[in-house]
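Action item from last meeting closed. Structure (97 res):
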């Protein structure tokens, strides 16, 4: 099922430059996530800061502009985002466990 089918709406996947930079730093364990983030179907959001963690960048971005739905399996990031009113979250469940 695609994201548009799930949301019943047109959506444009976006990724911040900080997220891509952090995935590169995390190394081979995250190569699949990096490959997905670099997909040409994802729009890249330029960051006006430097040296920020991807989590902080995402929280700042959605706090300033609340038009984003955030998809993440990162528990700590989800907890931070729950403190920002009106930010919808989506996460994938691992049903094999």
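Sequence:
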């Amino acid at each position: 099922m695609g994201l548009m089918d799930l949301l019943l709406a047109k959506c444009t996947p976006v990724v911040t430059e900080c997220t891509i930079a952090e995935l590169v730093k995390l190394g081979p364990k995250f190569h699949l996530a990096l490959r997905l983030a670099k997909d040409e179907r994802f729009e890249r959001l330029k960051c006006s800061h430097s040296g920020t963690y991807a989590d902080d960048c995402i929280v700042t971005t959605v706090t300033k502009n609340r038009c984003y739905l955030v998809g993440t399996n990162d528990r700590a990031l989800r907890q931070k985002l729950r403190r920002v009113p009106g930010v919808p979250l989506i996460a994938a469940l691992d049903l094999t466990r």
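Note appended to the action item: The two ends are 21 Å apart (CA to CA).
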